[in-house]
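Practice problem: predict the structure.
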Amino acid sequence: MTEIPPRLTRKQGTKFLQAQGYPISLSVFNKLAMPSRGEGPRVDVWFGSRPLYLPSDLLEWAEARCRTA
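Answer:
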């Protein structure tokens, strides 16, 4: 049987990214993840009106936003 990967809410995703060393606040994450802006990570599924994200997608998105000095 295939294991289902965990999905995170925006609040959980923010805490996950912070634990990985990415300095992002919930308010910034919410702003960037608004569908009208189109700057957030890929939404894996919607649970009603709540977007849920895969941890791997969050890490990929955060890494892509990093730049070298």
